[in-house]
Amino acid sequence: MPITIDETYRSREGTEGDNPTAELRFVIQGTNDDLVVRGLLEASSPSVYLGLRRTEYAFEPLGGDVWDCSVHYAEKEEPQFTFDTGGGTQHITQSRSTVGIYPAPGEIAPTFQGAIGVNDDQVAGTDVTIPVYNFTETHFIDDDLVTPAYKANLFLLTGRVNGDAFKGFAKGEVLFLGASGTKRGKDDWEITFRFAASPNIQNLSLGSITGINKEGWHYLWVRFADDEDTAAHTLIKKPVAAYVELVYPYGNFSLLGLDEAPA
């Protein structure tokens, strides 16, 4: 006798409201092997039905190689979001402006045009807090979408910045820090995505250097040259050029498979 599975007239019951549910019912005939029944139920029922996630199976032997079976569906879990604005640190050698110079009595203080911590031939600089918006998103993704190719994309996008606008941020402002995932049963994965955002800057001025544009994750550094402050009769370090470097490659964040709602 061939093994058959048929949906019954009692199928497609459900509830609506805050916690909607649905149930598909089947009759399986032609086997006394519960492992065959389990596999057939999984293969014959959709993982998502009416927007609800498949949560469990039930099956009962009725005798004569006949089984009464059901597949239950419940609401998908909503994505979870966390964030913090603790910021990051960056070592800088050039201030945006010098707001005070206080020479000793009888001395003329040299002007360093914003260079920080100048002593002899060195520009020591300082560490400052910069705006960094760290955020995570946890999504529950169907198993059939988490393919080896998708996992490879997560790996290859780690350490890249957004090549296009992403979740309300402009190109170059979001760095993908990676993802971690756990498979939950047979139907879906719980995957947490980690990001950091830093704002783009336009028309920045450093000393006499103006019109500097940098994306959030570009690296800015300043080159200094020897000069003389004639009033103070002192050799100084003068900023002569600013460089904006691409240190994180761009990536196509649409491959993450996330919606584009702002973070």
Task: Tag the structure with descriptive keywords.
263 residues, mainly beta, four-stranded antiparallel β-sheet, rod-shaped
Largest sheet: 6 strands, antiparallel
Helix content: under 10%
Strand content: over 45%
Rg on CA atoms, Å: 31 Å
Decide which structural class fits the backbone.
Answer: mainly beta
Overall geometry: rod-shaped
Distance between the termini: 56 Å
Assembly type of the chains comes to single chain
Count of domain modules: 2
Write the layout of secondary structure elements.
Elements: E1 4-7, E2 13-15, E3 21-29, H1 34-44, E4 48-49, E5 52-63, E6 66-75, E7 80-84, E8 88-92, E9 118-119, E10 122-123, E11 126-130, E12 133-142, H2 148-157, E13 161-162, E14 174-184, E15 188-197, E16 201-206, E17 209-214, E18 219-229, E19 234-245, E20 250-251
Parallel strand pairs: 13-20
Antiparallel strand pairs: 1-3, 2-3, 3-6, 4-5, 5-6, 7-12, 8-11, 9-10, 12-15, 14-15, 16-17, 18-19
Question: Mind explaining what this structure looks like?
Answer:
The protein is mostly beta strands. The chain has two domains: 4-75, no CATH class; 77-263, no CATH class. The chain contains two helices and 20 strands. It has helices spanning 34-44, 148-157, and strands at residues 4-7, 13-15, 21-29, 48-49, 52-63, 66-75, 80-84, 88-92, 118-119, 122-123, 126-130, 133-142, 161-162, 174-184, 188-197, 201-206, 209-214, 219-229, 234-245, 250-251. The strands form seven sheets. Strands 1, 2, 3, 4, 5 and 6 form a six-stranded antiparallel β-sheet that branches. Strands 7-12-15-14 form a four-stranded antiparallel β-sheet, with helices on one face. Strands 8-11 form a two-stranded antiparallel ribbon. A hairpin with a 3-residue loop joins strand 14 and strand 15. The protein is rod-shaped, with a radius of gyration of 31 Å. The protein starts with a strand and ends in a 12-residue tail after the last strand. The relative contact order is 0.14. The mean pLDDT is 89. Residues 1-20 are annotated as: Disordered.
